[in-house]
Every structure is written in C-alpha cells, then in structure tokens.
C-alpha cells in the first residue's frame, strides 16, 4: 500500500485494524509497537484546557519593531531532493467555459499584515479556514479571528504560542510555526497546530476548540514524535481521526529520510482527554514523494462509505 497514492485507504486501514483503539496502551515518552503491520503508537505527554483566548493580552509589537528583525523563514526548512520529471498533464483543461463560473467574492477584508506576529518572515505560510460564524487566518507565527459576516477582527492578531500560555515545554516556549488551521465541520470545532522543539522540531502542538467559537477555550496537546527533524506538517480531518503527513530528516537536518503519516485520536481530543497517535513510520524511504492527508468535505456517512469501499477494493 503506497500511502502517497491512497490516503483514504490509509484512514480506512487504521480503522479496520482497530489500531486507533490500541493507542491508549502506548507510553507518553516513547513509541510502542502495536498490531502486526509495523505500526507504532505514542501518547500526548501533556494535555489541558486553556483559558478563553479573549483573555489574552493584545499583541503589542509594532510593525517597525518587526521590520528591524532579520528577514527569514519562521523555521529554516531543509531541502527536499528533487525527483521531479516533466510530463504531459493528462487532465489539463484546454477550453474555457462560455461564461465565467466563479462567483464574485462575498466579502473582502484585510488579514494579518506583513511582517506578521513576532516574525519578520517570508514566505508567510498563509492559511485560513471558515467556520460557522468565523474565519481564522494563520501567518507564520501568528493567528487572527474574524467575523465572517462583517470581516471585523474579533481576536488578534496574536502569537500562536500565546495559545499555549501556561502549558509549559516547547509548545509554549519554542513554537516554530509551519501553522495549520482547520475547521472540523463534523463536530463544529477548530484545530490549530504548529511544530516545536529545542533546536529542531521534534514535537507537534495541536489545540482543539471546545466549541465553535475560536475565541473561547481550547483542549491543548503536546506530542513528542521522536528525535528526528519533523518538518512540513500538514493535517486533515477524517471521521475516525485527525491525520498528519510530515517530511522527515535526520536530527541535523542534513539528510531526507522520507515522508511519514500519523493519525491522532480525534474522539479523545474532542473530549479533552489524554490522546494518542499511531504511525506506520517511514514507509517508502527518501525516494518517495511527499504526500498530504485527505480532509473532510461532506457528511460523515458519505466519507465513511467512501473509505470502506476504497479498503474493500484493495
């Protein structure tokens, strides 16, 4: 099974093998073998519930102060090997529709301004997500919450690490960005994440809002993934877990080891309980192309059916 080609099958296979249910038996400080397929499991080394984010003090840094900082990446990323081969795109569109199909934007409003929050960084790693009533934007080390009906800011801009204030460890003191924000439409909850580490990123810090309001309280988690350089985290929401793909380098960041997939215990994280993760490890080595997890866009019933069919057809 090639995870890069079958992310849906990876999700279904974890569910079918009952691996998710085995996470609770893993230790919090190391990976534990589970099942018979080379999977390993780990636990969150810490979790708690934050204060409401609207209690956070406003970010006080000025644009002038940020501009005095050296321009850089939020975290210096090692370079991937270039295995690209040019070829003809078999599904390229050669004709345009007779009339434009894309509707005009409903609303335009400014997001987080360059040079960002606590980081004079480029590229900005900008991403955002729309929820029931809010839009959340992340840029490098900062995030901001907007009213999606008016475009007015309701929180921030604020440092991502401020979300982990009082949590302790590298999630609070050594967050390095590569941020991801997602809206779990099946539970009406937000997810915010960033990687962290003392020296190189070894941890993934994930927070799940306790309600659909991104300015409220959050279930906060710290996960130690290992001693390698865990880079470029990308996450997806699925009915049976939160899935993540990363590019893995050796601890000095000088050699690419390959991409790696992870699945986190979504139900435990929604409930604010200690949560675990499973991973098949590096499955294809440094010649395998990076991959991305599948993300929910539809109803839970439809997605579970699609995953079950994909697994059955293998």
Task: Give an overview in words.
With 314 residues, the protein is an alpha+beta fold. The protein has one domain (7-73, 110-312). Helix content is 13%, strand content 30%. The protein is built from five helices and 15 strands. The protein has helices at residues 7-16, 63-68, 169-173, 266-271, 300-312; strands spanning 32-34, 39-43, 46-49, 127-130, 134-139, 142-147, 153-159, 180-184, 189-196, 203-209, 218-224, 229-238, 241-249, 256-264, 276-279. The strands form three sheets. It has a six-stranded antiparallel sheet. Strands 3-11-10-9-8 form a five-stranded antiparallel sheet. A hairpin with a 6-residue loop joins strand 9 (189-196) and strand 10 (203-209). Helix 1 (7-16) packs across helix 5. The longest helix is centred in the C-terminal third of the chain and has 13 residues, at 300-312. The radius of gyration is 20 Å and the shape is globular. The chain starts with 6 loop residues before the first helix and ends with a helix. Mean pLDDT is 81; it is low at 1-27 and 62-69.
How would you summarize this macromolecular structure in one to three sentences?
With 314 residues, the protein is α+β, with helices and mostly antiparallel strands. It has helices spanning 7-16, 63-68, 169-173, 266-271, 300-312; strands at 32-34, 39-43, 46-49, 127-130, 134-139, 142-147, 153-159, 180-184, 189-196, 203-209, 218-224, 229-238, 241-249, 256-264, 276-279.
